[in-house]
Amino acid sequence: ITLTNLSRVFRTQDVETTALSNINLTVKQGEFVAIMGPSGCGKSTLLSILGMLDSPTSGSFEFLDDDISIYSEVKLAELRKSSIGFVFQSFNLIDELTVFENVELPLQYLKISKIERKQRVEAILKRVAIDHRSDHLPQQLSGGQQQRVAVARALVSNPKIILADEPTGNLDSKNGDEVMTMLRELNREGTTIIMVTHSEKEGNYADRLVRLLDGQVMVDKASQVSMPKD
Ligand code: ADP
Ligand code: ADP
């Protein structure tokens, strides 16, 4: 990912708000980047643009060597479904569907056959150690387990990148540590992760910290406490 002089300005009636101002940021395949900064600094806006849910007002967004800032919404939606896995603070699982069905959903959108869906969902549930809860409903699981299901759902389509928005915001510290350890493991296995967090401790699970202030990159550096990599 290469963002060059990227800005996002919101216009509502007479009011203009610059949410992002001349952002320059490169994320290489296999990196684990934490985005931090105070409320209102532009984290959500940046994550929405990276997740192809929103487009910049100016500047360019290169993804796998294509400038996608000029893509139509339809083309962006297609690219989003095949390239991005989302993990949210509030899990966003569908209450009426079982664990298996929740994780299967992205593969249905991608029109993957039933046989292949079954194989892939079973493999990924095993990977996040929640396969024994396959037929349960989300509400029958702990918060940490629900977030593991959400991570499985994000991963099942083999995305190029995982975007995580405060992934442990609704978890106690034990479950939070567990989810962070899992994300770090997935990163070690090659998954690119960009995560928004308020927590300095969580920032240290990442390799790199990007600090925003008033829509600008203030700091972009290796995370201070480098967590053991093996
Ligand atoms: P935003 O994405 O706009 O920062 P959130 O919904 O994430 O908004 O947070 C709402 C408020 O709660 C903000 O003021 C934020 O600073 C605070 N907050 C959210 N998560 C945490 C956290 N893990 N630790 C401390 N403060 C938090
Ligand atoms: P953060 O996630 O760091 O809390 P946001 O990206 O949500 O920050 O917001 C950055 C700035 O852009 C804030 O001043 C916010 O009020 C503004 N903003 C975000 N979304 C909109 C919108 N849809 N319309 C108008 N202003 C917005």
Automatic annotation (TrEMBL):
PROSITE patterns: ABC_TRANSPORTER_1 (PS00211), ABC_TRANSPORTER_2 (PS50893)
Record keyword ATP-binding present: yes
A GO molecular-function annotation: ATP binding
Gene3D superfamilies named among the record's database cross-references: P-loop containing nucleotide triphosphate hydrolases (3.40.50.300)
Keywords associated with the record: ATP-binding, Nucleotide-binding, Transport
UniProt cross-references to SMART domains, sorted A to Z: AAA (SM00382)
Keyword Ion transport (UniProt): no
Superkingdom classification of source: Bacteria
Xref: Pfam families: ABC_tran
Domain ABC transporter: 1-230
InterPro entries given in the database record: AAA+_ATPase, ABC_transporter-like_ATP-bd, ABC_transporter-like_CS, ABC_transpr_LolD-like, MacB-like_ATP-bd, P-loop_NTPase
Name under which the protein is recorded: ABC transporter ATP-binding protein
Species the sequence originates in: Colwellia maritima
